[in-house]
């Protein structure tokens, strides 16, 4: 089985999971860790509890918010675990793609999906027209 763990500073992780559920439905295999949030257990404890419940043979993909950030650094030791991958920086596209793909994950597959997700990050530029128009010009 594949498990997805989204681990971030603050509430970004819970929001990402919530949005995934809204868009694709059942995301029972997606968990999150919200680090450094008042009322939450310390991050090390949250991580230990998470991995204690995951069977050793299962795949785990960890998504963190900032490469080199404290959350990302705390996940690095868990990458020694077989079938465990760590992706730093993420967007919704890569989360959904990795969650929904049925095939076994490899480094090459994940690198390709990360590159595809990067392509979705862009500045949307709209050319401004200097002519005077009113709303009626757009109605047909």
UniProtKB/TrEMBL annotation:
Residues 1-121 form the PTS EIIA type-4 domain. It holds the Pfam family EIIA-man. GO terms for biological process: phosphoenolpyruvate-dependent sugar phosphotransferase system. It comes from the Bacteria. One of its GO terms (cellular component) is membrane. PANTHER family: PTS PERMEASE-RELATED-RELATED, PTS SYSTEM MANNOSE-SPECIFIC EIIAB COMPONENT-RELATED. This is PTS fructose transporter subunit IIA.
């Amino acid at each position: 089985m594949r498990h997805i763990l989204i681990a971030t500073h603050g509430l970004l992780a819970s929001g990402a999971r919530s949005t995934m559920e809204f868009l694709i439905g059942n995301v029972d295999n997606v968990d999150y860790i919200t680090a450094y949030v008042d009322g939450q257990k310390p991050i090390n404890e949250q991580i230990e509890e998470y991995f204690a419940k995951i069977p050793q043979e299962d795949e785990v993909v960890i998504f963190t918010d900032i490469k080199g950030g404290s959350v990302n650094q705390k996940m690095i030791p868990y990458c020694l675990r077989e079938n465990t991958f760590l992706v730093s920086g993420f967007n919704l596209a890569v989360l959904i793609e990795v969650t929904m793909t049925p095939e076994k994950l490899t480094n090459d597959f994940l690198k390709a999906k990360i590159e595809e997700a990067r392509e979705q990050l862009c500045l949307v530029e709209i050319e401004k027209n200097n002519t005077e128009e009113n709303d009626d010009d757009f109605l047909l």
